[in-house]
Amino acid sequence: MNSVHTSNKRSARRQKRTQEILASALQIVVEDGVDGLTVHKLAKRMDCAVGAMYRYFSGKDALLQALQDHALTAFAAHLEREITGEGLERVMAAFLAWHGFAEAEPALHALLDGALSDPHRLLSDEAATAVDARLRGVMAIGQQTLLDAQEAGLLNEGDALIRSYAMFAAVHGTEHFRKRDGYAEVASSDVRRELMLSLLRGWGATP
To answer: Which domains can be identified in the chain, with CATH numbers?
Structure first.
């Protein structure tokens, strides 16, 4: 019994420390970008030896994979909460959740946004494959709303997977216009909505 209790305490301490490391790593990414994250910089921020970091993560690749996995888990939970309504309203809610996530979890959103927008390869093939599997699971949530709309006759038959990525790309792209909202002639929210409605109309939705 004592050995089990000790093991559980050790596991809880490790989990807590892992979350602390990820929180600090995320802050570095937010402040300095993905390129600014190094194990040495993280160790300095955590006020510990570099070697201590390697007991939790094998290197920057493992750190980034864990960060993206954590962010996608948070986004999936946010997405499930945001999907409300029926029919096309439900489709809109699913993909507008990306915008809502930016407001609710700006640091995690910034991490995913940077990972998706950076043209450079940030992860090894193995790590990227693992993250992509999690991303596909998240995208499947929005894809299902499109499938439901098709089955209800609200959209023409089509590839819901490709359509889900097209809708996400529209919302993701317009997020980059938000910083201009204070002075731009056109609000990013109007552009975002018009893009989404244009896609839906192209797939057979009626106004």
So the answer is: 1-57 (1.10.10.60), 60-202 (1.10.357.10)
